[in-house]
Amino acid sequence: MEMKFGPRRVAGKLTYANVVATLALMIAISGGTALAATHLITGRQIAKGTISAANIKHRTLTANLFKRGTLRRGATGATGPAGPAGPAGAPGAAGTAAAYGVISTNGSGNPTFNPTLSKGFTSVYSPSAGVLCIAYPAGITTNLPLSVNEAGSEPDNWEQVSPAQCSGTGFEVANLNGATNLSGDLTILAP
Question: Is residue 35 part of a domain?
Fold first, then answer.
């Protein structure tokens, strides 16, 4: 028996059904991806309102897929319980100020240091209206620059000036606005 293979032998058996069956087998084996990849659907081809939440796979849409400002933020949740206290911090460095103090006016209208808020300064007096003489604290014998800060209702007019009225024994602070007494407090700091 002689077997013949070749184009004439195959061509004689080629029918429409054989061609369709072969194509179907090829598509089934490839999973249809080759055909589908050439015919992708774009967003422009989808009519508005035709895709609902039921058509979208859960957790496939993330915030970066949306235009900025289109997603609304939900309500803020309740505050959680406080966590445990952290470890204690390192101790602070010792203060380097030679003296500090808060000057107020006593019941007689004279300037005085607040003893609970002062250290190093011991006395203050007023040789004339709007001028305060603050005795040098221990260890200071010259007119170092002070830091003077008004508090409360005191206007921003008190400044350290040259100690012309303090006889060279202390700092001179004057009210450059010409007020005759303190209406609030002065906080001073000597470096």
Answer: yes
